[in-house]
Amino acid sequence: MPTDKPKISQARIPSSVSTTVSDEIGDRREVRVTAEYPLSVFVDKQEYVTLMTLGQMPEALIIGWLRNQRLLMSVSDIEEVTVDWETNAAAVYTKSGLRQTLGKPTVTSGCGQGTMFGDFMAEMENLNLAHEAKLSAAALFDLLAQIRVYGAVYKSSGAVHACCLAKPLGDAAEMLIFVEDVGRHNAVDTIAGWMWLNDVTGADKIFYTTGRLTSEMVIKCAQMNIPCLVSRSGMTRMGLEIARHINLTVIGRALNKRYLVFSGAEYFDGGGAK
Predict the structure, then answer these.
(1) Rounded CA separation 219/225 (Å)
(2) Residue 168 half-sphere exposure, CB side, CA atoms within 13 Å?
(3) How many whole angstroms separate alpha carbon 153 and alpha carbon 160?
(4) pLDDT of residue 3
(5) What's the whole-model pTM score?
(6) CA–CA separation, 258 and 233 (whole Å)
(7) Apex CA 46: angle with CA 217 and CA 36, to 5°?
(8) CB atoms < 10 A from the CB of 229, how many?
(9) Which stretches within the chain are classed as H helix?
(10) DSSP output for 112-129
(11) What's residue 77's pLDDT?
């Protein structure tokens, strides 16, 4: 049964701008700096949040933010999302309003806006992620090699995080979407929104992030029902505890052909790769 999709704008905006700087020997030259735009989100005419973003996929970012905050439980609950960069504002119209959140907001370690609503720890208590595909070391190395080709904004001007969603296919990985933004949480939420908009499920996917593996990152991965999380960075104690509790495979310090399996080693086929 096809999902009832919302009407959305396509309000992409330039990801970098030119500026003049002085280098270490005093020479003046032109460089690119990463764009950062405030985007105030209004839901049914009520202001909810201002997101600082690169502005590459703002509609998917907003939808993913609403999803990961548990303010909406289905993309079919959304009527329309319209972004207007002249006013730096986005209007979201729902079919029956936002759901009531549980408990008080918790400020997380995410860069920028990192507030997560509801008692997520209670929601995680009985969660046990399904693994529909086993990740091999060869597929992991293939994914890491592909990632080096992406990252146009980072290569041009830096100052961004990146995330991607991929599907393991034996000894290879199929890249589904790659997102850069000024905060890693924004990149995660954009992919969450893209998944909703495109009816993409998570149980047979890998999620990659350039950011550290905090409790927030683990929880957001779990909310998308993705059983495997990979990062070039390290992991926090709380992130590790939650990952092990919910059956999430976590691979950190993944760079070139080096990695550490923090959690879920039984779902990873290392194969003695060297």
Answers:
(1) 10
(2) 28
(3) 7
(4) 57
(5) 0.89
(6) 12
(7) 50
(8) 26
(9) 58-68, 120-124, 137-147, 152-157, 184-197, 215-223, 237-246
(10) SS-EE-S-HHHHHTT---
(11) 96
